[in-house]
Structure formats: C-alpha cells, structure tokens
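Board notes (copied after class):
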Amino acid sequence: MKPDKTSAGAESRRAALRLLDAVLRRGLPLEAALDAATRDLARPDDRGLAHAIAAETLRRLPDLDALIDSATQQRLAPDAKARFALRIALVQALALGTPPHAAISTVLPLVDGGPRRLVHGVFGALMRRKVVLPTLPALPRGVEQRWLEAWGRDMIDAARAAMAAPPPLDLSFADAGVAARFEGEHLAARHARIPAHNRVAELPGFADGEFWVQDLAASIPARLLGPGEGRHVLDLCAAPGGKTLQLASAGWRVTAVDSSAPRLERLWENLARTRLPAEIVEADVMQWSPPAPVDAILLDAPCSATGIFRRHPDVLHRVRSKVIAEMAGLQRAMLARAADWLKPGGTLVFSTCSLEQAEGEAHLADLPSSLVLEAVAQEELPEGAVPHPNGHVRTLPTMLADKGGLDGFFIARFRRI
C-alpha cells in the first residue's frame, strides 16, 4: 500500500505516530490503540495505511534505530519525536515501497516547530548511502537474550525468519469432509492452510459458517480434549471463540466464560455464523464458579502473548519481565481455582500463547495436588508439533518453518485424581 500526496497522507503518518506512541510509551496493544489513534481518518484506506506503517515499524524497530544511530552525531532519545518521524519515513522508503521524497515530505509535518532540519538531513544522508534493511529483522535485545537462554540459537534464527514474512492463514473447519475438499495444505484433521493475502470473508464457505481463522498451534488445546459426546466442558477465557467453536463442533456441551464484553461480541458473531451451540457467560474466572462440577475444562489463560509475535510484533516491545511474572502468578491462581471444578477423573487442558517458560514449563513444578499430568501422544498433534518427553506440548518457531511456521504455545493436559 503506497501513500498518496494529499494532506490525508500526512494525517495517516500522524495517526501512525500516535499508534507507535501508544505501544512504545504507554504499553498498549497495537490493535487496542487503533480506534483512538485513527479517529480523525475518514477513509478506511488511510486507517489501514496508518496501521501498516506502525506494524512494520514495530517489526523492524531495532534495525531502523540502528540506521538512525549510525547517522547522528548525538544519539536521539528513544522517545524523541525526531526518532519517531525518522522511523516512519525510513520504514516507508525501505520496507513499504514508498518513494523517498514522499516518505520524507509526509513526516516533516510531524516535527513542525521542531527539528525538521535534523530529520530531513538524517533521512537524506541515509538515502544517499543507499541503506537497506536486513533480510531478517533483528529481535529486541532483551527478547533475544531471554529466548536465547531458554531455547537456543536455532530458535532465535527461526523467530527472525518468522518475522520477515506474513504468516499464512490457518482455517479450522466444523466438518472434516468440508475441510478435506477445501483447497490448501492440510496439516491436521479439519484444517487447511492458505496464503496470507487471501481475504477471509470472500473465501467460499465463510458466509455459510464452514470455517473460522485459527492458528494451527492455537487449535491444539481443544484437539487434546477429543470428542465430547455430549459431555460438559468449560472454555475459560474463551473469547474471541476459536476454541469454543472447536469444542462445540466436536460434540461438547460448551459453557464459554470471558470477562470482556467486546471480545464476547465476536464470539456471539462467530456462533451465529457457524450455527454452533454454546452457553456464553460474561464473568471473571477469579470471581465466577460453575453451579456443578464438569467433565472437562479448557483454560487458555491470559498471558504475555509473546508466542503470537509473527502477527503482533508489538508484543515484543510492550512485554517486560514484570508483566511476565504478573501473568504467571495469575495463571497459577486460575489453574488452582479451575482444578476444583472438575469431576473426579475429569480432564483439564491448560495453555498459554507465550514463549516464556515462566508462563509454561514452570507451572509443572507447582501443580494443584488434585491434578496429574497426562502425556500427549504424537498422533494427537498436527503435523510439525512434537510432544515433549515429559508429556506436555511446546510449539516453537523452529517447528514447521518450511511450511509457514507455528505460533509459540505451551499446552499441558491434566487428569483430576
């Protein structure tokens, strides 16, 4: 998407600046900041451009900053408006295909009354040097150090490669026969993988509710509960509802619980489109409890979400060690609370879309006394995923890398004793 030369083009860059400020200074998720940051943009294309600029800037932030620092005698502060303006101009010229003159002319209004000459001079110097961005984006230093210690160099290389290209779209289907006939790569039962450029709403069968978008790794937790045969399952922290749809289509009687009314709206919409049944409860899992014990529970707990960095690069810049520790504490509390809601012999699947061991493997050493880990077999998993020798599942960027990769997840299945 290339920018235009109108004032609306400059306003798109101003909105992109607001988005970057919301993520980098205030720690907000990019998607959560989008409405407020683009409120002054009348056209959907301008809104989309602002989002594309901000997302690509976050994807390339360490590399952009390295270029800026190479061309300034005095290092600009991380939150300096000149640095933000240069990031936006450079990402357009070097990653989004914008002509350099348009890239700089639309960001100079961002520094009116400020260091316009500095921004213009640094940008011009870099263009004359014919700089390019690395083929593989660099990870933020803190993230790379943390993941290197946890997973090793191969994972870092795979994560950088995963950042370099849009991930494919994974579709989950209610009917295995429909999935088998759908064009795409089939890496699991009731699944198809298609290129990222497809418009989901225009795909055959979408309006009829035949499928929904769900990363292949995100489909594993519900797969590990198997067929429901009318038994009762709680889907905790359920919205926007991919796992609820999986469970309902597998024959479970589903009660889906989530505290976010806006996210539950999306779940209602998905249920209406797919015509799958589920009971919806708007409640905080730490305050609510079911009226009676249930056969199974799927707890996809709130987490740092660093495992979904391929689609949401902002998480790598927002999440700090303090946030990871806080999320891990909440997960332990939720796991202990949910364990009491199972019938004897019932199954609980716990998952987080995180690449942090504190939000995954560390929980295995601090389980509620009523739960025992139940090993996952290879045949229960999609292509590319491998069960850990201890019995749990960990998906990493190294897995299925030649076919589009997987999001980072920790998944464990427990039995109540």
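Comment from the instructor: DSSP finds 15 helices and eleven strands in the chain. The radius of gyration is 23 Å.
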